[in-house]
Amino acid sequence: MEEKMQPAVVFDHVSKEYTLYRDNKEQFLALFHHSKNLRKHMALKDVSLTIQKGESVGIIGNNGAGKSTMLKMITGVAFPTSGEVTVNGRVAALLELTAGFSSEMTGRENIYLKGYLLGLTDEYIRSIEDKIIEFAELGDYIDQPVRTYSSGMKMRLGFAVNINTDPEILVVDEALSVGDARFKRKCKDAIGEIIKKGTTVLYVSHSPADVRKICTRAIYLVKGQVVFDGDVEEALTIYEQQNAGKAKAAPKKK
Ligand code: ADP
User: Residue 19 forms beta bridges with which residues?
Assistant: First the structure.
């Protein structure tokens, strides 16, 4: 009972401030001297939201709005400057797909390596190994060192591992393109299947059609702030209106 009531993700007044250094020297000196003159940039500003288990949430917004920063906090790669992020459940991320691969090890060995990094047991990885290899479509290359793979092959393997580990929370950045059109379709279908299973999904996308298809809720970020959180159609309407306005206004100024 209690397990069910726990939300998957909670952002509690989360802000993220990055320091912008002019050059390496300034960054180095900042280790020793506290300087008031450094430029700061707020990537997220006081974001509070709760994502319940089983929700599939689209995160939309222009470049630099803070979408990746949000996802990175859920996967534990970035940390808030203030506020708190709570994540309940095992997270798999379709973000940096080739991160963590060892290039000297074979594709098959890397499946185990990634599996261990995700906290999976030998026995469990063995049970999904064939499924991963089939999904990645690497054929005999699976027993070759990863350094012999093309970047597309590495991405396919990374995607195959993450999507087949039965995560409780799946974090996806659609900007990442995997393979040709047919493989992309297969990836989208796999994400669709995972949603049907009741997995919580956070999906960053620029494609209204995909958000409509995949998500039951959408969060619209502008300059690090949540300006809308709720119905997908409403979110997309506001997003499209604001951006259509900008597109029209821009040429007039020039
Ligand atoms: P989005 O994914 O919506 O394009 P990001 O989360 O990547 O946005 O970035 C939000 C803002 O934070 C941007 O202005 C970006 O330049 C800045 N930013 C992101 N990562 C860093 C970093 N490591 N150092 C400094 N600024 C960063």
Answer: 40
Please report, in tens digits, the pLDDT of each residue of the chain (254 residues total): 445 579 999 999 999 999 888 888 888 888 887 777 778 899 999 999 999 999 999 999 999 999 999 999 998 889 999 999 999 998 888 877 777 789 999 999 999 998 888 888 999 999 999 999 999 999 999 999 999 999 888 889 988 998 888 889 999 887 666 777 888 888 888 888 888 888 999 999 888 888 998 899 999 999 999 999 999 999 999 999 988 866 554 444 43
CA dihedral (107, 112, 118, 124) positive or negative: positive
CA angle 10, 11, 14 (to 5 degrees): 165
- In the chain, helix, strand, coil percent, each to 5? 45, 25, 30
If you measure from the C-alpha of residue 86 to the centroid of ligand 1, how many angstroms do you get, rounded to a whole number?
A: 21
Of 17, 26, 69, the residue with max ligand 1 atoms within 8 A of its CB, to mutate for a pocket test, comes to: 69
Query: Beta strand 91-94 with 169-173: parallel, antiparallel or unpaired?
Result: parallel
The tokens describing 199, both together, are: 């997995």
Residue 66 beta carbon below 6 angstroms from any ligand 1 atom: yes
Residues facing 223 on adjacent strands:
none
* Cα 20 to middle of ligand 1, angstroms: 11
Q: Report DSSP state, residue 145.
A: B
CB atoms within 10 A of CB 25: 9
Question: What pTM, to 2 d.p., does this model score?
Answer: 0.83
Which residue minimizes the CA distance to atom 6 of ligand 1? Answer: 66
Ligand 1 pocket check for 83: Cβ under 6 Å: no
